[in-house]
Structure formats: C-alpha cells, structure tokens
Specification:
It is built from two helices and six strands. The chain has two domains: 39 residues, no CATH class; 55 residues, no CATH class. The strands form two sheets. It has a four-stranded antiparallel sheet with strand order 3-4-5-6, with helices on one face. 19% of the residues lie in helices and 39% in strands.
C-alpha cells in the first residue's frame, strides 16, 4: 500500500536513474508513475540558453525566472525546458 510518505522515496529513485533514462516520458496512470522511452528530441542537461535557441529555434513562450537560484522555463511545441541561471537542468515532454 502506498502512503503519502512513499512519494519522496519514489521521486528520489526516479532522480537517481542513469543518464540513459533521461530521454523518457514520465506518466501517471492509476496513481502509479510509469517511465517510458521518448524519441522527442530536446536539449540535454548543461546546455546554455543560447545553444538551445541555436539548435531548437525561438521558444513559443518564455516564462520569467522565479526563485533563488532563478529557474526559467521555455516552452516549445511538444516539450518544455527548465534552466537554472542560463543552463538546462531538465527538459520535459508535454503530455498529450
């Protein structure tokens, strides 16, 4: 039986997955997290904002930075990119 306290442990496990699993889609089905491979091309961790824009073009939307350190989100058709300062920390395939 899943408890509310098991979610942080599950998230820690997902964050510890090897780099090969980073190109995957995370789905929640019947309250269970499922990770499946994704073929959607998107930026890799550590890329700069300028490198992302050079490779993928201008984003559909740029959201203002929030928090400390500043986290910025750029939305593209099919995925979003999250930056800390000017470096990619994650890219997420849009649901659909």
């Amino acid at each position: 039986m899943r408890t509310p306290h098991s979610m942080p442990a599950l998230m820690a496990l997902l964050l510890a997955l090897p780099a090969a699993a980073l190109h995957a889609e995370t789905l929640v089905v019947d309250e269970q997290v499922i990770v499946r491979p994704s073929d959607v091309p998107r930026p890799v961790r550590g890329s700069t904002m300028s490198a992302v824009e050079a490779k993928f073009g201008a984003p559909v939307a740029r959201h203002d930075a929030v928090g400390t350190p500043p986290i910025t989100r750029w939305d593209y058709a099919g995925f979003s990119v999250f930056f800390e300062h000017d470096r990619v920390i994650d890219s997420v395939v849009a649901g659909g």
